[in-house]
Amino acid sequence: MTTRRLSLPRRGLSRRAALLGGGAGLMGLGLAACGSSDEGGSAGASDGGGSAPEGPIKLGYIASWTDGLSMAYLLENRLNALGYEVEHTQISDAGLLYAGLSEGDVDIFPSAWPEVTHAQYMEEYEGSIEDLHAYYEGAKLNLSVPDYVDITSIEELVGQGDRFGGRIVGIEPGAGLTAATQDAVIPGYGLDEEYELVTSSTPAMLTELSSAIDAQEDIVVTLWTPFWANSTYSVKALEDPDGAFGEAEALHFLGRSGFQDDYADVADYLGQISLSDEQYNGLENLVVNEFGEGQEAEAVEAWIEENPDVLPAVEG
After folding, report:
1. How far apart are the C-alpha atoms of 237 and 239, rounded to whole Å?
2. pTM for the structure as a whole
3. I need a surface site. Which of 35, 72, 91, 118 has the fewest CB within 10 A?
4. Vertex 114 angle, CA 112 and 117, to 5°
5. Complete domains list, the chain, with CATH
6. How distant is the alpha carbon of residue 121 from its chain centre?
7. Which of 49-58, 237-246, 253-262, 307-316 has the least mean pLDDT?
């Protein structure tokens, strides 16, 4: 297994153009600059008539989004068991990831939010991405505050801007959560004149959240479920009475165009995976907290030992 990180030059490009317009061509530039030297062939073969394509199956995800990270290592374990080599491709934001998937630079996005959060990317790349399976139901975006903050609804943020320093602390600029907060939640609840959405990265947001809690300070952050941070930090999701964040959605495995034909056995196996809240949270907690960076594969092995009957058996 190899890991490569892809990023794109931004010179001369607006943020929106880089994420939503011409993303596929830019992704090609990113790959040319950061290409992998992995040349191995696939050890497995599709059941769909003929051999699978040469080379490893490429899993593309944003490493700081730990649902994708956790599921990527779970899939690596299962794909290895099926006889396939795997390559991890870490990409800087959602727009580039969907563009890479549509161009075939990535084979699988292991944990996508295509129904609501990333619906704009699914529409943009319609016909170039295959929906392989929904493995988890009930994912939801939210604004959260520490438990000690005496408000329970987004509505109650109105008139409280000074208390929170006029900031809502967000994650990556290209995230669907960022777009929903900026385009729907802030204007929908009339927070425009009091609050600025400050974006950077998921780790930076969590650092600010942790520091604020340690100091018992007021803070509003963008969060989501399922996510390990909801149980690690003492936070509560604010009610969204107007439904500005949209309905709950499922988390999906997405594939590049033609993936199901090329890897029929893999597509069939992925279609049998279904995780509950407890199972998913246990996996993510092991990967992120109990084992940590560099020991993701060991975390997955531990989770499989603890949950021997959750995943479908690998034949052979």
Report:
1. 6
2. 0.78
3. 35
4. 95
5. 2-138+249-306 (3.40.190.10), 139-237 (3.40.190.100)
6. 13
7. 49-58
